[in-house]
Amino acid sequence: MFDSITLVKIRGALKYIVLYSIFELGRAHGYELRQYIAKLFNLKYVPSNGILYPTLHELEKEGFLISYSEGRKRVYELTSKGIDYIHVNKQEIHSTIGKIRTMFSIINRLNIDKLINVVQTLWEKNVIIPNHVVEALSKKVLEIIEILNTQLESNYKKCDINQ
Q: Which residues contact 100 (CB under 8 A, 6 or more apart)?
């Protein structure tokens, strides 16, 4: 589904998001970060621990964060290296966050989140979808992809004309 370059981009974007979120919050534990990120992108769900904590541990290992226990919670703060990184990469971080906001806005407007929920429910209930239904759905999805690709090509042509 994703190639290795795409996964590297996602991990890089996630690092930006986590660093930016901690920068904005000052310090935070995992639950606060998940809530902040969900609010930042107007998500109907919060990012999973399986995504967040490996990123936090990696950033800590790289020296961008420190963590300490506060009661039963692990609290994360930026180090001076993390703060410097935010300042140096501020423009790219804001650009990345803007692109991700746009992407999630499109996903929400296209109701893709609802589609994912239905597919997940079908999977959880072990519902077998007949081949003719899958084929009909596949055709509809390909139509949507064609419409979006047409928009993409149109955008590229506009960029070429303006240059």
A: 13, 17, 41
Give the Cα separation of 108 and 104 in Å (integer).
6
Rg (CA), the chain: 20
Q: What is the C-alpha to C-alpha distance for residues 80 and 88, in angstroms, rounded to an integer?
A: 12
Domain ranges of the chain: 4-110
Is the CATH number of domain 4-110 2.30.30.60? Answer: no
Give this prediction's pTM. 0.73
Q: What is the DSSP string of 69-100?
A: EETTEEEEEE-HHHHHHHHHTHHHHHHHHHHH
CA angle 152, 2, 94 (to 5 degrees): 60
Smallest Cα–Cα separation from 13: which of 95, 132, 124, 68?
A: 95
110-156 pLDDT, tens per residue?
A: 888 888 889 889 999 999 999 999 999 999 999 999 999 999 888 77
Q: Containing H/E element for 42?
A: none
